[in-house]
Amino acid sequence: MKDTGSLINHYCERFTLIDEKEAPKLMTIEHELKTSTAVPKCGLMMIGLGGNNGTTVTCGILANKNKLSWLTRRGEASANYFGSFSQSVTVKVGMRQSKDPSGKKTMEDIYKPVKDLLPMVKPEDFVIGGWDINSMDMYNATLRAKVLEPGLIQQLEKDLIKMKPLPGVYNLAYIASNQEDRANHIKEGTTSQLIQQVQEDIKNFRTTNKLERVVVLWTANTERYYEKDISNLEELEKLIKENAPLPPSVVYGVAALREKAIFLNGSPQNTIHPALIELAHKQGSYLAGSDFKSGQTKYKTAMGDYLIGSGIPIRSIVSYNHLGNNDGKNLSEPHTFRSKELSKVSCLEDAIMSNKILYPKGQEHIDHTVVIKYCPFVGDSKRAMDEYTSEIFLQGTNTIVSYNVCEDSLLAAPIMIDICVFAELFSRISIDSKPMGPVLSYLSFFFKAPVTNHPEYVINSLGRQKDMLSNFLKACAGYGTEDNTMMAFDF
């Protein structure tokens, strides 16, 4: 049913409560899901606007907006959103009963595009801006990235040449030293002054473009882990007041949340700590992260579902990557690589903990090695090799080896669009009269190391993450969720 500008649906959540002293108890909780149907004019400010990801997202949105086609050596290509969950995926919403030519009753699965389930911002409607530590305009930055075909870039030249990033926040202590020659466009000032400058950038962007909502997305280089554990907002504000040097990602995060913008962290460093979550809660804003789950790690979580779900314990995983883009260059130094290693290694923890037959207490460890090497010649075309060795029946072994060649930024860009589309949508949804957040946990499907409102309970399983997101969207849209027992069909 609808009220003024809202879609209201009721959903009965069911789960089984287990108590060792009692019989299993089926629990049901009735929820009211309310979605504001007014889609705001939305701006997307990317940190690292002139990088491979930032330029690819910008060009992809412009290409789709203008319905462009261009020639490649394989023939004509047209703009699409392949790889985007919000724009290119369909979900089963129910079944239709009909009759075949003989008059026999049949059932047909009905699917609906995710983008049509609820009112969502169209990617083409995002107003794009952002920051970069390099001053290059977006046309030349796109040429520098060497990701897209010249035939597409040339059609976008007039739009891109006018787009220039704002000066970025830079602290060499938190990224690789090999990035220093790129940093010619940086803000100056103390920590509190830098936060204020970023806040002014967001205010001006919002005012100039008459925006109702701003999403700030970190898609810049991986930072090293911030060693200090900032456990509460009071401590964070004290550090800011004392002008302690903070990681640039935290500077952007604080500024974005103070301006009630949504802050999304696409890199693996520990930007989203308890103090930042507390700030989001205080400001009534939202945040999510961390580290885009685009290729190798998404495949790894799917393989974990497959093997452990088949009763086969994975005993070792060796993951090797080499790539030649600026991300690979930045990760070539140990302190930045460590952030990436941790996000990649932790992605199977919940799958392992789910099966005490395969992984008895004290035997949950698997040998998990991650290697990333910088090879400039291959550019954005990343090579990813994985070896999964498992123990099988009667102590046999089974090894699966995969080799994936992927255009890194072309995998990441649709996911970045998804995160922004869904983050804006979730900012308009309330559950039982309470707004979602402040951490948008339902975005876990898109992150290697998802941050949640309940840090003791994190889901990494790709299948569970997809079901969680799909079922939540369907519930908000008024559709039931499918239990797939199929008993009505006497399977």
Structure description:
The chain has three domains: 2-38, no CATH class; 42-81 and 120-292 and 410-476, 3-Layer(aba) Sandwich (Rossmann fold), CATH 3.40.50; 296-407, Dihydrodipicolinate Reductase, domain 2, CATH 3.30.360.10. 32% of the residues lie in helices and 26% in strands. It has helices at 52-65, 85-88, 138-145, 150-155, 157-161, 191-208, 233-241, 248-258, 274-283, 296-309, 326-330, 334-345, 349-353, 408-426, 462-477, and strands spanning 2-3, 6-17, 25-36, 42-47, 69-72, 75-78, 90-99, 105-113, 127-132, 166-167, 213-218, 262-265, 287-289, 314-323, 367-374, 381-392, 396-407, 429-431, 434-435. The strands form five sheets. It has a six-stranded parallel beta sheet, sandwiched between helices. Strands 1-2-3-18-19 form a five-stranded antiparallel beta sheet. Helix 8 (248-258) packs parallel to helix 9. The longest helix has 19 residues, at 408-426.
